[in-house]
Amino acid sequence: MSHNTFGHLFRVTTWGESHGPALGCVVDGCPPGIRFTLKDIQDELDKRKPGQSRFVTQRREPDEVKVLSGVVTDDDGETLISTGTPISMLIENVDQRSKDYGEIARQYRPGHADYAYDVKYGLRDHRGGGRSSARETAARVAAGAIARKIVPGLVVRGALVSMGTRSIDRANWNWDFIGSAENPFFTPDPASVQVFADYLDGIRKAGSSVGAVIEIVAEGVPAGLGAPIYAKLDQDIASNLMSINAVKGVEIGNGFEAARITGEENADEMRMGNDGTPLFLSNNAGGILGGISTGQDVIARFAVKPTSSILTPRKSIDKDGKDVDVMTKGRHDPCVGIRAVPIGEAMVACAIADHYLRHRGQTGRI
Amino acid sequence: MSHNTFGHLFRVTTWGESHGPALGCVVDGCPPGIRFTLKDIQDELDKRKPGQSRFVTQRREPDEVKVLSGVVTDDDGETLISTGTPISMLIENVDQRSKDYGEIARQYRPGHADYAYDVKYGLRDHRGGGRSSARETAARVAAGAIARKIVPGLVVRGALVSMGTRSIDRANWNWDFIGSAENPFFTPDPASVQVFADYLDGIRKAGSSVGAVIEIVAEGVPAGLGAPIYAKLDQDIASNLMSINAVKGVEIGNGFEAARITGEENADEMRMGNDGTPLFLSNNAGGILGGISTGQDVIARFAVKPTSSILTPRKSIDKDGKDVDVMTKGRHDPCVGIRAVPIGEAMVACAIADHYLRHRGQTGRI
Amino acid sequence: MSHNTFGHLFRVTTWGESHGPALGCVVDGCPPGIRFTLKDIQDELDKRKPGQSRFVTQRREPDEVKVLSGVVTDDDGETLISTGTPISMLIENVDQRSKDYGEIARQYRPGHADYAYDVKYGLRDHRGGGRSSARETAARVAAGAIARKIVPGLVVRGALVSMGTRSIDRANWNWDFIGSAENPFFTPDPASVQVFADYLDGIRKAGSSVGAVIEIVAEGVPAGLGAPIYAKLDQDIASNLMSINAVKGVEIGNGFEAARITGEENADEMRMGNDGTPLFLSNNAGGILGGISTGQDVIARFAVKPTSSILTPRKSIDKDGKDVDVMTKGRHDPCVGIRAVPIGEAMVACAIADHYLRHRGQTGRI
Amino acid sequence: MSHNTFGHLFRVTTWGESHGPALGCVVDGCPPGIRFTLKDIQDELDKRKPGQSRFVTQRREPDEVKVLSGVVTDDDGETLISTGTPISMLIENVDQRSKDYGEIARQYRPGHADYAYDVKYGLRDHRGGGRSSARETAARVAAGAIARKIVPGLVVRGALVSMGTRSIDRANWNWDFIGSAENPFFTPDPASVQVFADYLDGIRKAGSSVGAVIEIVAEGVPAGLGAPIYAKLDQDIASNLMSINAVKGVEIGNGFEAARITGEENADEMRMGNDGTPLFLSNNAGGILGGISTGQDVIARFAVKPTSSILTPRKSIDKDGKDVDVMTKGRHDPCVGIRAVPIGEAMVACAIADHYLRHRGQTGRI
Predict the structure, then answer these.
(1) How far off is chain C from A129, nearest CA to CA, in Å?
(2) Which residue in B75, D11, D41, D336 has the fewest CB atoms around it within 10 Å?
(3) Is the CB of residue C116 less than 8 Å from the CB of residue C315?
(4) ipTM above 0.90?
(5) In chain B, what residues touch A330 (CB-CB under 8 Å)?
(6) Which residues on chain D are in Cβ contact (under 8 Å) with B118?
(7) Which H or E run contains B5?
(8) Block means of pLDDT (10 residues each) for chain B, length 366 residues?
């Protein structure tokens, strides 16, 4: 990736910190004539909005998006139509409370980028993690809402499949449950809610935190997107997901499991389907073979580390090189992986939209 | 990534197929005055060269590299000095035997990109996998040999840490053993050689194949390389590793394990070191926090799927949409993960060299 | 250029139309620790602001810039310090009067991009030229104000050297006169003001328009920026200048004159200067030889076509393919070249800042 | 441009110096299924080949191109079909005579990049100008030969329209004459041959050199290529042309003339044509309005400075900072502008091919 821009034809540039007046993004290269509403974007943003349950940060941010350019309004007064020029979106920061961070401005919090930042830039905006703040991800979600509109028939959904030592039961997988009001975890398994809630309450009350694994499934991805060895679709999905804060691992299809099994077990066999396209008998590949989509569901998973802001004191040093013990107060997610679900969806949608346009550009075959 | 080029300031463009006359790469943006010899490059290439044991493909390729531009020769007649202009390197294909592939030209081999290729491009060079062939990776290794010279003090090494269901014992880790003549597996654990040999002999004789996990460790990476959320060092390492054929997963530091543990367990505590830089008490982060290197060893792992070319017949279809059973003869690696070790090293070295130059460009702090 | 982003390490992405709520830019890759004030940016913006004399459009726009990210405020409460993260700047559109454009929404104005837009995008925001509006250039000027701070000692100045058939007398060149209150033309020749005023009054009253030639001079450009044949400094300056609306030609140094003279006349001879750097005896090259800066002043000129919006009816067609005669009312600059001076300065400053960082990145020699 | 790569979807990376073993390029992003022959490329290369008349350098180079990747051969054994993967082309350097350059290895030739090179890189390959050699342009011409095949119906032709103080008579313009055996100048005006020959013989015998202006005309460019203000088609054409050695100016359509005339004179009026597309009554715009092609011929001109290698001694300095007088012997073109004609064609063709794919990618409207 080049700086804070990602994508090659569908390009997203994000900007903004946790404690500045606003954050946002510029979506460049959107095809003309794409129709969407503010509500389409807002609905996505609301999914990752803080303060919606006791399991996420209590920071109160309405995350209301403004579209400043790149669209005309249709006669209905609501539908926006992209003109093909850059779409600028802006979200104001409302609940900043920068005093919360005052006491740790000079300390290097373990697990955070504080020390690395200071070495790199020589100065940093310590408030709320500055550019590293999870708030930046709102811009990605807004961009992803537009990306979703570009590939006809594309549906990108995500689910939390494990949290710390607890996992879902895949036999219970129910996509419809994820939007349910009783589901603060983006889990597809109704039976897991109580398990996760009890587990995370314990973590939260202990001032601790825990990681999670998220799975993203993209249906309706046409075969042919990507390239054999560079500009691979899976590579750009992995890159996009790894660009999310706190992500430490990514896998496509069966991922690391593929390293443990044999060629016979791993190969997805095919038969000719009734509709003239192949019928795959399994999907270990996660919908991508040799970097190119096959028409199967594209499946990716990523690991989110536990929030580094915890109440338990940890050994560290400060800017003067003195040994200190750091304890991070403030309003933090006990499991940042929860709100990573819509972010992961957005990043996968952006990668697919970009490759859709690139494939059309190079081959004209869509 | 943009097409077949990767990197932003240290840029590598590769070209070539398995069965054309040659393959190669152009390394652009190399600093002037970098000194290296043909032997430096050849030594790296020899590590991934086929035909060196019964556990890798028996294709015979000398993989002799030519440097066609971008250097002047020093007075010793051997040392090449980069001039700052593009370095073009070329490796001829010698042992092509394209007849081996004749019978499966019209079949879509399960696990291979054949079907996806045909959908994407409408035609393909079926010989040896065309552009998807593992032979292309020789170009990466050549580029990586130069990348290694750019960051003073950088050492990038790789090891195979598991193969199928067998793993090394980390207590036995010995980097020096990896170059040993009795070690056809790039394993750092001497005790594992017999285990892997027996296991892979069984796989090989059964006409089967198996996957592997590779770990890359980069020492001497200065703190400050990367960026907070995009152009993250870990993201570009992940992207580079995912661009290698057959890779299905990547993790940094403790990777997916981070999703299973708490913030207290995961945080790498610090104390002030005697040399004026922090002493980290652990390295769960894999040397990268918030996308920026910390000065610790940078650690990445990637999962390689089993070779899809196997002797056991698998169900598939052909170009005419007829159901067929595919059996792939020819000279294939029973575990392509073995030769992926030097490739992974090269890709990590390229990412680090690129970020070293980018960091110097933006900040002037190196 | 890639879409609406230019630059490689110092990257600028602009967005916004004439008649949306706002326009702006994201400056990415700015080194950390660059100090500037809002006034530094505002002063540049004020130079290109409309409505400052009868010779430019009467649209009233305060063009007040907001800096939304990428900076911290120094203890003085005024100085902004870049943090190394993206700097987002926003300028609101105030005086939009979109009704002015109603009547020509369906006509293709000759000399404008109306027809080409419709072919390309299938729809367009006709208000004020949409994305092609000269208002977008405010974003460039804001970005240029930051670019000017990056290269120590850099001074970039511009001058209008001809307008239609009238030209300045170079013997009278006085940089200090350009900022003078009696100088609405950015001319460096005090004697030319009356000439240009009389000439342009005639043009303006006739409802006509006229073109201009602008010259940009950058002093303090260190030797060594650029590259031999691609990524040439002059090439990127030319590209940046050609990206400005209505520009139809660019030249470096003596430009097209070089094609008319001999090698003896054109060569800039050198002698060793007292300060250890070469003393060039002339500057036909415009400070750039073989794509690389020599330490002399960098000189570029560009030709701006006459405003296409004129009162004289011109033959054209409309969206329905009917022949029409088009007359463009509204508030237009009779010579858009005047306000192009600060824009040209900004684009040259951005190119130089980018190459400064790129040179430092590749070679470490700054 | 990014280093030695240009183009966004149709990307060309060139490499090689005058005195290395070879030079070449990698064409990446070519659509699959493009059909061409080696002769198609060779014919273009032969146009710029040295040694074809007394008016160009006497260096003897067959400039025979090899295609090393990215194609399959059709059943006729001659037609190459692109596969969509990178096309690598290589041209060997045969007639190198590096001793010619020995005596000036330590001198900075006026008008050459010698001094700038040394400042930038700290070392340089002085033989034949190193990377700045005109030989590199062979790679561009080879890439351009493929670019020409991508846009259906595209014809790109160039002509020398002036040489030093002599110009063609446009009333005599005859494209067919340019390929004529009696025409060593790429002039479209038969009457000019004797004028140019006498003039250049004088220049040549005096050991001098002279500049030239080249005009490139692209017919068959579909309307809609480019973008309003960045990624303008004219901007990328200007960038591509300015990347050619010795080019000091570029103009589109009437170029600098547009700055001298009024809006009424400059506007290209339209009427509805019989074929349902607009009939433009003039082409001052050079086929591009607001950065987007209109369907008219695309017209660009560029100024080439006189060869800096001349026999007349010029004042300069050497690497030790001593004043010297430099006289450049060797085999040089008295007017490098002549052989710049096919190079300019190639660069324009590459820009158009790239924008054709980009337009298709973003809009799907081709």
Answers:
(1) 12
(2) B75
(3) no
(4) yes
(5) none
(6) none
(7) strand B5-6
(8) 90 93 97 97 91 79 92 95 97 72 77 91 77 90 98 98 98 95 95 97 94 98 95 97 97 98 96 91 97 97 94 91 86 89 98 98 93
